[in-house]
Structure prediction request, 181 residues.
Amino acid sequence: MNRPKTINLDITSRCTLACSGCDRVWYKNNGKTIPKHDLSLEEFDKISNYFEKVLFCGQISDPIFNPHFIDMLKMCYEKNVDVQISTAASHRPEEWYVKAFEANPKAKWIFGLDGFPKDSHKYRINQDGEHIFEMMKLGASMGVRVYWQYIVFNYNENDIEVARKMAQKYKIIFKLTYSGR
Prediction:
């Protein structure tokens, strides 16, 4: 079976969240500094010439904070490179999301929203879950593949079925994830 050549990229060092399970917390607790680097368009151009699929999933960052992110999405669209974005940060305005969704309408967006929008900040510290949910609805209304990644915690385990129906109502794909945290 042929599999597409895939790469998972951490394209920036920035994130506005302070999730307790994130590697950023490990760095901070161990007196380490997170390496500062934004992947440039030139670097990304080389990568996108080689790989057939790009996963933008930060381990210590959120990809939406790379200043060239929308251009990277456009580049992938023009080169027919499959794209998946995993994001949980909520600190971009609606206009930015519209540009990002339009830059690559084939992209798959996975939004980390753990529980009801009003409660998601309990794990994803600093997240505006209500804004994220509105951006998820916006993307879905524009025909973008939008996934709601819902990590189950004690505070949200009884809300799963209602959240699943919320997602279904807006044509958002519900992706339940269990964690040992």
In short: The beta strands are 6-9, 53-57, 82-87, 108-112, 145-152, 173-178.
